[in-house]
Amino acid sequence: MLNNQCSMGNMVKNDTEKRVYDLEERTARFAEAIIDFCKTIPENVITRPIITQLVKAGTSQAANYYEACEAETTKDFIHKIGIVLKEIRETKLWLRLIARAHEPCKNRSRELWKEAHELNLIFAKSRKTAKENEAKQQRIHH
User: Fold this and answer.
1) Using one digit for the tens of pLDDT, what is the confidence trace for 57-104?
2) Element (H, E) at 134
3) What is the residue extent of each domain of the chain?
């Protein structure tokens, strides 16, 4: 049951489209993009703590999504997706702040912010759906 909740993000298109949508892969690639981006930012007294926080939040979202997919209960899945949402929102904040702290990074930061925003929408929908399904199950059993 829980694997189905995680596979909501995994949709394989037919061969002619040659496009695979895999949320696990997407979150991992986003984490890698965050690392690559942070390696290009010059470190100084202002950027150093922001870079540290950005790397932590940007990579934690993927790790926490992997944990959510392994959740043993729907309640645990909902909780872990909530953590993913928190990490994504933090990532968006750090991207905004790094764009302010180092102007030349603004365009790439905005691109990454857009991806973080899309991931946030996907995870929010996944959490909402899981909550609705849990509520239905509770009504059935009561």
Assistant:
1) 999 999 999 999 999 999 999 999 999 999 999 999 999 999 999 999
2) helix 106-141
3) 2-137
CB 89 within 8 A of CB 120: yes
Q: Give all strands (DSSP E) within 1-78, no chain letters.
A: 11-12, 20-21
**Cα–Cα distance, 53 to 116 (Å, whole number):** 15
In this structure, whether the domain defined by 2-137 belongs to CATH 1.10.1040.10 is answered with no
Q: Report the predicted TM-score, pTM, of the whole model to 2 decimal places.
A: 0.83
Rounded to 10 degrees, the C-alpha dihedral 39/41/43/48 comes to -80
Give the burial class of 44: count Cβ atoms within 10 A of its Cβ; 0-12 exposed, 13-18 middle, 19 or more buried: exposed
